Amino acid sequence: MELHREKIKIELERLGWSEAELAKRMKVKRQYLNRIMRGDRGISLNGIEKIANALGLTGKDLIK
C-alpha cells in the first residue's frame, strides 16, 4: 500500500488549498503533513482516511 501523493497535490491545487490548509482541516501539525508528503514518514490507514475526508475523497482514492 502506497499513498498517492500526486493525487493529493492535484486535489490541493483544484481546491486552491496549501498543505497548511489541509493540515488545519485534518487537525494535525503542518510539519507532520509535510513529512508525509515528502515521503519521510509513513502513514497509517487512519491517516489516509483523515486526508481523504478533509479533501472530500475516500481512502481508496488515495492508495496506489
Strand content: under 5%
Distance between the termini: 7 Å
Average per-residue pLDDT, rounded, comes to 95
Using the coordinates shown, work out and report the CATH topology. Answer: 434 Repressor (Amino-terminal Domain)
List the defining traits of the structure above.
single chain; 64 residues; mainly alpha; 434 Repressor (Amino-terminal Domain); globular
Task: Describe this structure in a few short sentences.
With 64 residues, this protein is an all-alpha fold.
Structure description:
With 64 residues, this protein is mostly helical. It has one domain (5-55): lambda repressor-like DNA-binding domains (434 Repressor (Amino-terminal Domain), Orthogonal Bundle), CATH 1.10.260. It is built from four helices and no strands. The chain has helices at 5-15, 19-26, 30-38, 45-55. Helix 2 (19-26) crosses helix 3 and helix 2 (19-26) crosses helix 4. The protein is globular, with a radius of gyration of 10 Å.
Helices and strands in order:
Blueprint: H1 5-15, H2 19-26, H3 30-38, H4 45-55
